[in-house]
Amino acid sequence: MNTVPTAPPKTATGLSVQGLSVRHGHHTILHDITLGPFPPGVLCAVLGPNGSGKSTLLRAMGGLVPARGRVLLHGQALDGLPLKARARLCCTLPQSLPEPLRLSVLETLLAARRVAHPAQADDIPAALGWLERMGIASLALRPLNELSGGQRQLVGLAQALSRHPRALLLDEPLSALDPHYQYRVLALLREEAARSGLVCIMVLHDLNQALNWCQTACILHEGQVRAFGAPRTILTPALLHAIYRIHACVDTGTQGQAFMSVQGVETADQVPQKV
Ligand SMILES: Nc1ncnc2c1ncn2[C@@H]1O[C@H](COP(=O)(O)OP(=O)(O)OP(=O)(O)O)[C@@H](O)[C@H]1O
Fold first, then answer.
1. Which of 24, 81, 123, 222 would bridge 85 by S-S if both were Cys, CB 3.0 to 4.6 A apart?
2. What ipTM describes this predicted complex?
């Protein structure tokens, strides 16, 4: 399958990768990816089928997996930075969160902030403010290991935001959330990105969320970039068929919202292959 040639990034603003490759044993998971820039101040999506390399791309951009190539944030190379300096600039929220410790939610927020910043007098009110904005202030003193999956995902997001990174890399951040919290988190991330110039990149499976909330998206397939640009422009019927094996198109509603209309799927050989 041909890949879309992606020219090296022309601007220094945002997050870009150049020649990024990741191997696990004999398998190449990401093939020399040059991509970006993901712009600051808006929400961006990483899309693609199961096993296409989305989590690996996010982990490589965040420095959590050994990779060849460059990761540039506003022109500054993140690869090669000392761990703490990189953590201050860029925060990655993985798809599966580590087994929670028997700490309170508030304590985990304070600990997460310490990864990147020295302690400050207003750390506790600031952490409580994030829980408030996330809609989970009532959980502040609950032990993390007693929370539901969705509640833990919200705490993880509050931890990430409370670190005030310049780039936030979120792997399926909405996967355990009910519709109220999905909307609330998207609105909060969009507000924060616009306010602070954050580069916010999310792995998403829900194409409607990408269409309606994200200004820029990249589509991965078999460890390569198939498209990069505005979701409404790149999610064509031909691409949806080639990538997801669905017969689908994007319709526009009366309020200007976009939504996927799926007519059918191909059912043969559906098991995602190792790339
Ligand atoms: N530690 C590992 N060792 C070997 N192979 C791996 C490892 N991690 C991921 N892979 C392989 O790399 C490929 C990409 O995995 P990745 O988790 O990045 O996909 P993904 O697009 O995030 O998938 P999903 O949508 O299912 O979460 C898969 O084929 C997977 O089996």
1. 81
2. 0.97
Whose C-alpha lies nearest to ligand 1, atom 13? 51
Q: Which two tokens stand for residue 177?
A: 């959330």
Helix (H, G, I), strand (E, B) or coil at 217: strand
Architecture, CATH, for domain 15-230: 3-Layer(aba) Sandwich (3.40)
* Total residues belonging to the chain: 275
For ligand 1, is residue 55 a contact (CB within 6 Å)? Answer: yes
Give, for ligand 1, the residue of 52, 65, 206 to mutate: max count of ligand atoms closer than 8 Å to Cβ: 52
Any idea where the domains of the chain sit in the sequence? 15-230
For residues 44-54, give the mean pLDDT.
97
- Is the predicted pLDDT of residue 253 greater than 70, yes or no? yes
Q: Is the CB of 275 under 6 A from ligand 1?
A: yes
* Cβ 29 under 6 angstroms from ligand 1: yes
The mean predicted confidence, pLDDT, of the chain is 89
Taking the CA of residue 52 as reference, the ligand 1 atom at the shortest distance is 21
Is 134:112 a contact under the CB 8 Å cutoff? no
The strands making up 68-73's β-sheet, listed across from edge to edge, are 27-38, 15-24, 68-73, 76-77
Token pair listed for 74 = 């506003």
- Give the mutation target among 20, 22, 56, 96 for probing the ligand 1 site: most ligand atoms within 8 A of CB: 56
pLDDT given for residue 100 in this prediction? 66
What are the helix (H) ranges across 25-170? 54-61, 83-89, 105-114, 123-134, 149-162
Average pLDDT over residues 163-184: 96
Phi then psi dihedrals of residue 66, to 5 deg: -60, 130
Q: What are phi and psi of 20, to 5 degrees?
A: -80, 125
